[in-house]
Design brief:
Number of helices: 2
Distance between the termini: 92 Å
Structural class: mainly alpha
Number of strands: 0
Helix content: over 70%
Length: 70
Amino acid sequence: MGLARTLTMSLSVSFIMSCSSPDPQPPKKTVFEPLLQSEERAREVQKTVDANTDATRKAVDTQERGDTPP
């Protein structure tokens, strides 16, 4: 009876180990990936444009007040 119990136990453990999920895979690329990348680039460009606009606006304001440029 001991051999049957050991065999049953080892088979059940082997079955559970073989059915366990493998390591998680990285997500597959989708058809939207190029669109998301271009949107991210556009946001970065917009940040640069906004920063330049703020710098120009500050320079114009200082010139209008007659202050010396920074």
